[in-house]
Amino acid sequence: MRAADIQDDLTDILVTEEEIHAKLEELAAQVATDYSGKDLLLVGVLKGAVMVMADFSRRLPMNASMDWMAVSSYGASTKSSGVVQIRKDLDTDLHGKHVLIVEDIIDSGLTLSWLLENFESRGAESIEVLALLRKPEAAKVQIDCKYVGFDIPNEFVVGYGLDYAESYRNLRDVAVLAPHVYS
Ligand code: XMP
Ligand code: MG
């Protein structure tokens, strides 16, 4: 796909790379203060959270271990099914760990609510969530998310790790996907 073609697939840019980096810097300082002296485990949710994890964790002025989980509730559609499937489980035992789940976006909240319940049953000492984006109008379940980057309108967005059918993840900004692409 050529650069010009990609622009045709997007409408507004909602959050720029610069805004994302500035926000992650802020959140990293906050997290470092909150977890000072604690054993912190960052759990990234594949694949969307790859960019957030990379940029957030490198701004974190403290040691933290890192693990990944792959779940899917979407397939190639733009709506959450609520049916969550583990595609790759953690390698880490959560007993006694302070877990910070790193997510790209909270949409309906169904994926995270399932993950939170799942992690609680594994004996973590504490569990919090960091999400770069959140769509308040799309919430089907309330998620207690301690660290939120940006609240955005209820539109399907891509870029900075977020995909539509595995495309657009490598865009630097977060942009609204033009409806003609998926309708
Ligand atoms: P739920 O609805 O369970 O969704 O909170 C969580 C997961 O769904 C994906 N998601 C999106 N992906 N643009 C995307 O590219 C979006 O606007 C969007 N909304 C939800 C994402 O993987 C998220 O972790
Ligand atoms: Mg995701």
Automatic annotation (TrEMBL):
Pfam families hit by this protein: Pribosyltran
Location in the cell: Cytoplasm
Enzyme class: transferase
GO molecular function annotations of the record: glycosyltransferase activity
Domain Phosphoribosyltransferase residue range list: 18-164
Chief subcellular location: cytoplasm
Cofactor(s) demanded: Mg(2+)
Record family assignment: Belongs to the purine/pyrimidine phosphoribosyltransferase family.
Name assigned to this protein: Hypoxanthine phosphoribosyltransferase
Phylogenetic placement of the source organism: Bacteria, Bacillati, Actinomycetota, Actinomycetes, Micrococcales
